[in-house]
Amino acid sequence: MRFYYFQESGAFERDSATGTYRVNFEKMKEAMLSSSEQILKIQGDGDYATAKKLIEEQGFIREELQKDLDRIGEAGIPRDIVFEQAAEVWGLK
Questions:
Q1: Cα gap 86→8, rounded to integer Å
Q2: pLDDT in tens, 7-22
Q3: Assuming Cys at both sites, which of 63, 66, 69, 87 could form a disulfide with 92, CB separation 3.0 to 4.6 Å?
Q4: Residue 68, domain member (yes or no)
Q5: pLDDT digits (tens, 9 = 90+) for 35-78
Q6: What HEC string does the chain produce?
Q7: In this structure, how many other beta carbons lie within 10 angstroms of the beta carbon of residue 67?
Q8: Number of structural domains the chain divides into
C-alpha cells in the first residue's frame, strides 16, 4: 500500500523505457510522514471502513510492479534486506 501511496505522492518516478526508478528524497520524506500519520490515525480511530477501502484500492501488487519485482528476482538482487545485530552476531557473547 505504501508503494502506491509514495508513487501517488511523487516520492519516486518510474522511467517506463528502462523500468528504473528515481527517488525524490524531499517528497519521499513528506510521503513517509503523511503515510504513517494516516495509518496511525486509522488504527487509533478504529476506522474499519477506511482501512478496508485502502486495502481494496492499494492492498495488492499491480501488474507493472510485479514485472519489476520479477526482473529484480531474476537478476538475483535481494528485495528484503535484514540487518542482523546482536551480541552473538558481533562475537560479544
A1: 37
A2: 999 999 999 999 999 9
A3: 87
A4: yes
A5: 999 999 999 999 999 999 999 988 999 999 999 999 999 999 88
A6: CHHHHHHHCCCEEEECCCCEEEECHHHHHHHHHHHHHHHHHHHHHCCHHHHHHHHHHHCCCCHHHHHHHHHHHHCCCCCCCCCCCCCCCCCCC
A7: 12
A8: 1
